[in-house]
């Protein structure tokens, strides 16, 4: 049997030697050959080894036998680092007269040296410069955004969009314009939401708010111009806590989907006298700004004399369209307020004593603490009652609603403390005060519900005014002989007849076009009001019928060939007396 010779074992250093030879051969391909007259190029595969490697010094070889000079040893290629989307390589002359390649920013035009040390310093500049110039930095890690509909999209931080959202937030929540530069707000946003947020100065925020307003105004003008609808205006004068008056002009119209839309066209301080001419000039300026002078259907004012006098100026300017049948409207809720305020004066003694008792209890912290202990002893939960405001009768209604349950507790505690301090007896609360307050509270419920119903904005309310008048007339008729409220009913009835003895055409036609009412139903409702308040509407019904056909012919001429979609019908309480009269 032949003897087999053992295979010689290769030393381990040969394996390592082969590896290093291979590595040296591979790295030799990475030598950069750069022509001084050309932009730098990298060999293929550079970014696979070191992304920080950027530009190397040009390497040349000696001339060959032919004496051809410098020749490249490898094929050049483009730069691959993502920082070059923000920089350009340019040839620049330095102060010492030498020429050098520099990396120049495309946005701020600042230049940096191009060296073999990497691109980290260029990357730092890019991440700061691009957002500052309104550019989206797409080099950072991609973030996802989940939408309410379940879709997912990529999200990138945008400084301009952040400023716009901040301006919207300030406008919608009435925040100070300096909130964007507040260190506490900045800490909240950067630590909890977005670390890339930069503080926004109040001057920048002010400019953003003005720009946002102008954009929204232009969009609103374009939206209305594309609609073939009329606009109903309301105008009110507001009084701020600083005694500054403001005039507000609000527009109501139907959008392309036949939904009632409300927009504020003007809200400006009134630094002038409240005269008819000044109010007229301000509203005309607003109408011309939004290009809706020819679209005004009606203007709703309160009962101030200056507002009423300004109507003649609008008529002289030929603002009312289609004969001006609906141009001047009086605010129904304001009329209800006047009616109730007249009745409150008749029971002011009882209401004032209850109001004074509540204010006296809360005027001292030790006294209020003692009142809370008194409530616990009587098995009631201690609470603080909010007093009313003289100009808002609804606040008086809500004050009575909250404190009537505590009538015995308030009376005992209040009278006991007054007796201990030796106060005069006329200030003491009596059971008669609470009895009148309870009756008047139940009496005001109809007026409160009518105010809430007619204060709606996003559903039609003009068709419900007559129904609410029916409810109020029946209430006044039922309390006319009441021992405690008879005097209040008389003055309230007089005030109501002053404003609604003549039913506005808008209220009548709105009820007629309701298919549940029609013209015959309107006659039934007006007859019921006549029975309760002794108002003869027979002549008005004839006039309403005549104007109904006149207005119908106007709208038939204008919209007879237009396919108008159906709008949703508002829900009305079916238990009201007015609907039972119609036998629905």
Automatic annotation (TrEMBL):
Pfam families: hAT-like_RNase-H (PF14372), zf-BED (PF02892). Keywords: DNA-binding, Membrane, Metal-binding, Transcription, Transcription regulation, Transmembrane, Transmembrane helix, Zinc, Zinc-finger. Coiled coil: none annotated. The chain crosses the membrane at residues 12-34. GO terms for molecular function: DNA binding; zinc ion binding. Residues 78-140 form the BED-type domain. This is BED-type domain-containing protein. The lineage of its organism: Eukaryota, Viridiplantae, Streptophyta, Embryophyta, Tracheophyta.
């Amino acid at each position: 049997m032949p003897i087999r010779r053992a295979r010689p074992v290769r030393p381990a250093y040969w394996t390592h030697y082969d590896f290093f030879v291979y590595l040296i051969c591979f790295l030799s391909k990475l030598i950069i050959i750069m022509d001084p007259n050309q932009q730098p190029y990298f060999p293929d595969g550079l970014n696979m080894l070191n992304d920080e490697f950027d530009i190397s010094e040009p390497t040349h070889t000696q001339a060959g036998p032919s004496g051809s000079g410098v020749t490249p040893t490898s094929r050049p290629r483009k730069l691959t680092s993502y920082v070059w989307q923000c920089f350009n390589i340019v040839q620049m002359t330095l102060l010492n007269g030498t020429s050098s390649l520099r990396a120049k920013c495309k946005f701020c035009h600042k230049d940096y040296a191009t060296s073999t040390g990497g691109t980290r310093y260029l990357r730092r500049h890019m991440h700061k410069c691009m957002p500052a110039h309104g550019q989206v930095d797409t080099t950072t890690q991609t973030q996802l955004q989940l939408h309410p509909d379940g879709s997912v999209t990529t999200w990138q931080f945008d400084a301009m969009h952040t400023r716009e959202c901040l301006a919207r937030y300030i406008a919608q929540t009435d925040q100070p314009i300096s909130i964007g530069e507040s260190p506490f707000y900045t800490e909240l946003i950067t630590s909890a939401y977005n670390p890339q947020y930069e503080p926004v100065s109040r001057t920048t925020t002010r400019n953003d708010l003005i720009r946002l307003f102008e954009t929204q105004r232009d969009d609103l003008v374009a939206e209305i111009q594309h609609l073939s609808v009329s606009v109903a205006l309301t105008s009110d004068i507001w009084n701020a806590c600083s005694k500054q008056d403001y005039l507000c002009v609000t527009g109501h119209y139907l959008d392309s989907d036949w939904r009632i839309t409300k927009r504020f066209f003007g809200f400006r301080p009134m630094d002038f006298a409240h005269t008819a001419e000044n109010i007229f000039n301000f509203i005309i300026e607003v109408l011309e700004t939004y290009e809706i002078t020819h679209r005004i259907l009606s203007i709703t004012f309160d009962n101030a004399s200056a507002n009423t006098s300004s109507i003649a100026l609008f008529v002289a300017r030929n603002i009312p369209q289609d004969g001006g049948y609906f141009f001047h409207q009086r605010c129904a809720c304001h009329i209800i307020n006047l009616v109730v305020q007249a009745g409150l004066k008749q029971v002011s003694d009882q209401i004032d004593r209850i109001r004074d008792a509540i204010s006296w209890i809360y005027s001292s912290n030790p006294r209020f603490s003692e009142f809370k202990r008194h409530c616990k002893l009587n098995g009631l939960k201690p609470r603080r009652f909010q007093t009313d405001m003289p100009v808002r009768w609804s606040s008086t209604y809500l004050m009575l609603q909250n404190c009537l349950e505590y009538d015995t507790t308030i009376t005992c505690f209040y009278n006991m403390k007054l007796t201990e301090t030796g106060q005069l007896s006329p200030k003491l609360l009596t059971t008669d005060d609470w009895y009148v307050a309870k009756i008047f509270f139940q009496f005001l419920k109809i007026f409160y519900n009518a105010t809430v119903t007619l204060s709606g904005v996003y559903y039609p309310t003009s068709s419900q005014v007559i129904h609410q008048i029916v409810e109020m007339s029946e209430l006044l008729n039922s309390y006319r002989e009441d021992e405690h409220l008879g005097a209040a009913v008389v003055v309230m009835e007089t005030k109501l007849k002053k404003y609604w003895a003549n039913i506005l055409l808008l209220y009548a036609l709105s009820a007629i076009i309701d298919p549940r009412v029609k013209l015959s139903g309107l006659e039934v409702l007006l007859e019921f009001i006549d029975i309760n308040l002794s108002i003869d509407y027979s002549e008005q019904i004839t006039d309403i019928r005549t104007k109904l056909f006149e207005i119908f012919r106007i709208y038939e001429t204008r919209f007879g060939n237009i396919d108008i979609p159906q709008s949703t019908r508002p829900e009305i309480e079916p238990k009201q007396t007015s609907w039972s009269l119609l036998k629905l």
